[in-house]
Amino acid sequence: MLTPSHRFRDIERTAVYLQPEKCVPPVAQDSMDKVWFIKDGCGIACAVVTWFLVFYAEFVVIFVILLPSKDLIYSIVNGIIFNILAFLALGSHLRAMITDPGAVPKGNATKEFIESLQLKPGQVVYKCPKCCSIKPDRAHHCSVCKRCIRKMDHHCPWVNNCVGENNQKFFVLFTMYISLISLHALIMVALHFLYCFEEDWTKCSSFSPPTTVILLILLCFEGLLFLIFTAVMFGTQVHSICTDETGIEKLKNENPTWEKTSSWEGLKQAFGGNFSLTWFSPFSSSLYQQVPLDEKCAVTQDSNEYVVGRIVGHVEIIEIGQTN
Ligand SMILES: [Zn+2]
Ligand SMILES: [Zn+2]
Questions:
Q1: Cα distance between residue 25 and residue 20, in whole Å
Q2: How far is the CA of 97 from the centre of ligand 2 (A)?
Q3: Is 156 among the residues known to form the active site?
Q4: Together in a domain, 93 and 126
Q5: Do 319 and 181 lie in a common domain?
Q6: Which of the pair, 65 or 314, is modelled with greater confidence?
Q7: Cys bridge to 263: 66, 132, 242, 249, which one at CB 3.0-4.6 A?
């Protein structure tokens, strides 16, 4: 639905180079291109650092804290909990990174496609001039992914991907498991420090006392930093799901043009159906019910129509009019 604020929020310019006929249809992709992976150097580096930090925590927890401990039950129970959390965190990270966040087909703003939408005179569609696609409501263009993403929340370099409609569940799980693993590591570091103070420092670890202290302090910093960062992110994400407002929409502070869902409905949509254990699994899909663009826009065809394109802000508005 086009509102006055949409029409006039930016200065209009002439749409000379953005006519629908200038858009070329997307080329057929081979199977390798179907794997969603953003080739961004900074994002790849951040993702590698994330994995490295989890493995560093694994190393310290296993070789400095748990293996030298004399309490076998304590070591086994904490080892199992920590490894399960680490596995789920990395699984969520991987799924968040290689899941298409809800990219709109590139270059679909062709004359044929717009005609196939069978729009009524007076109806409008939004076209992204950067990726030449018809933008569904609530989609935003990401300059890193170079695509328009449905319900884009933000582009996260730590998962080297956009957080959008299709992968928000994995991102929420990633922040949740990283904050849990950080909290667990912090508790174990604190207990181990106490244990080393009570015992002899040479006996509480298989490393030398200075190395043990440095490794534990580094893990402590890492745990604190990630606990704060991911717990805040987790809270923000759950809040945005419950209020049905993405990070970008909140930032722009625009009046909602969509019908807001209830908190519970929002959670069910993001996590894939009714509440069950699969909500917490990064290996089950989010099963989001997508409404194809054609269904949203399909109406009866009118023969005497013309198409006008004009740029408003960062989008081109293609308006359907009647010839007489
Ligand atoms: Zn775009
Ligand atoms: Zn992106």
A1: 11
A2: 11
A3: yes
A4: no
A5: no
A6: 65
A7: 242
Nearest ligand to the C-alpha atom of residue 143: 2
Catalytic residue among 142, 156, 162, 204: 156
Point out the ligand nearest to the CA of residue 36: 2
Per the structure, how many domains does the chain have? 2
Q: How far is CA 181 from CA 70, 89, 157, 228, in A?
A: 23, 8, 20, 12
Written as one letter, the residue type at 35 is V
Q: Residue 154 C-alpha to ligand 1 middle, in angstroms?
A: 14
**Residue 257, SS3?**
coil
Structural domain includes residue 313: yes
Same domain, 75 and 211: yes
Whether residues 88 and 213 fall in one domain: yes
> Largest Cα–Cα distance of the chain, in whole Å?
93
Distance (Å) from CA 134 to ligand 1 centroid: 8
Residue 314 backbone zone (phi > 0: left; psi -120 to 50: alpha; other: beta) = alpha
Q: What does the pLDDT look like over 221-254, one tens digit per residue? A: 999 999 999 999 999 999 999 999 998 888 888 7
CB count in 10 Å sphere of residue 221: 10
Residue with tokens 């639905």: 1
Contact in structure between 151 and 261 (CB atoms under 8 Å): no
119-141 pLDDT per residue, tens: 777 777 888 888 888 888 889 99
Q: Compute the distance between CA of residue 124 and CA of residue 311 in angstroms, rounded to an integer.
A: 12
CA of 145 to the centre of ligand 1 (A): 9
pLDDT at 261: 86
Domain shared by 121 and 193, yes or no: no
Task: Classify the phi-psi angles of 305: left when phi > 0, otherwise alpha if psi is within -120 to 50, otherwise beta.
Answer: beta
